[in-house]
Write a structure and sequence with these properties.
- With about 575 residues, this protein is an alpha/beta fold.
- The protein has one domain: Alkaline Phosphatase, subunit A.
- It is built from 16 helices and 18 strands.
- Strands 7-6-5-4-8-1-9-10-2-11 form a 10-stranded mixed β-sheet, sandwiched between helices. Strands 15-16-17-18 form a 4-stranded antiparallel β-sheet, covered by helices on one side. A two-stranded parallel sheet has the order 3-12.
- Strand 15 and strand 16 form a beta hairpin.
- Helix 8 packs parallel to helix 11.
- The longest helix is centred in the middle third of the chain and has 34 residues.
- It is globular and about 60 Å long.
- The N and C termini lie far apart (about 95 Å).
Length: about 575
Amino acid sequence: MKRRCHNAWSAALSLTLLFSHFVNSQTDESPNVVLILADDLGFTDIAPFGSEIDTPNIGRLAASGLSFTNYHTAANCAPARAMLLTGVDSHRNGVPNIPESIPPEQLAYDHYQGVLSQNVVTLASLLRDSGYHTYMTGKWHLGHTPELLPSARGFERTIAMADTGADNWEQRTYLPIYDEAHWYADGEKHTLPDDFYSSEYFIDKTIEFISTNESDDKPFFAYIPFQAVHMPVQAPREFSDKYAGVYDQGWTAMREQRRLAAEEAGVIPENTEVIVTPGTLDWNALTEEQRDHHARRMEVYAGMVDAMDMHIGRLMTYLESIGEYQNTIFIFTSDNGAEGSPLINPTGNSVLDPWFERVGYETGIENLGEKGSWVGIGPSNATIAASPLAYYKFHANEGGLRVPLVMSGPGISQRGELSDEFVFVTDLAPTILNLAGVNDHGGSWQTREVEPIVGKDFSSYLQGQAGPIHTASEPIGYEMGGSGALFKGDYKIVINKFEQNESEWHLFNIKTDPGEANDLAEAEPELLAEMLADYEQWASSNNVLPMPEGYNRARTILPGFRR
């Protein structure tokens, strides 16, 4: 009898230990997730996509995973970030545009505030509820009141810059629309260190946060939204000087070099046709001084991308040192296409000159990119970053919406492959959740109804299942600032009402014609009509508001802006 009781106790203990081991194994095997978001990075700004910029660490991720060449996001930062973190359309998550660009007529509506709604749930909240540590270091731009900061939206530890942008060398604002640069740490106002450089600091703090909890066996989610390469474009001189002379031949030559390299890499179809984005300057008509300044701006830009990649490599090395690299999913992408705002001229007479003089920013070539300097690459250089695509940030053309997406790690079976499957920014949240083994909230969270995730989970595709990710009959709408697009299968309709003053929609096959060189609107009137009807239905169901007459984005952000 005693023996039977002892055997029963032993069996129960064995089952308990086995169950405990199973639970611990599940915890141990839950993948970490590192979500890296570059800011204003163009389609071919990384080496795996055809860039001359040295990005070996992003290249290593691409070589060990799957890169998407037909991934689309929003045309500016806050809507992209809100959709990325929630899987909910920007018109339903509270961020249809950056708050700085929303006209007063639209600000009267609750869903047009430009800050993350309390009616959506972030990736961080869902992962934290499921036992993950959650960290964020970088640009937030989804609200800066206490209830809107990342520390109140699921992130356990945070370093957050709450504005559209900020200086990369010191704690100062970068535009005359803010009185100060708004930095927060774990929800409290934060003072940056004296040796601050944004890309370095974000990785330092990420490593610090991970190391603090290294011994507890819980997985982590690290969201790293870099300031690179948002203006002001700034980089340590040793990185910028690596590219001395590279851009001296001008944007026409560099665009073609990128196009050919992207074709050779398989990023775009062979013989992709391109257009020259209207407004691009004639390089040969510039003075030598102007060409030198434009070239140096691109050298600093390349240096900033290069420095970001180097710091990403530091995180990868750290994770290897603690044995977590192989159990980490890495996702690298950009919030939108390259920035093309014409805010400075190489020979002065720039819109911001009076402000630069008042606050002490320099724009001369001597110290470009270093502490105290201010530069953006401008519209003509942006056509290099976006090559071979048309236009850039704020535009609904491919140059504004199509950016690189690189994914590697557990759950991604492909190695060093490219996919031209259409993927939209809202698809990433449900896919990350599935890869992490975490359930979608299904429209209900903490006993209340919330906006359901609308993105498509494509984790099965990452594990080798055949496509398509989105069926050819599935319409996916997009609108920001009066410019709209709708994707359906291989096709896209697009109009830029305010950025380009267009009155007619265009139709493109973006699978075979990513350069948007061949408008099919006249040749395919039935398809155009069908997709226009899809767009109207999408806009109605998502309560998309019309833009007021005379709206000008630049003047809304910077009153008195001359363009």
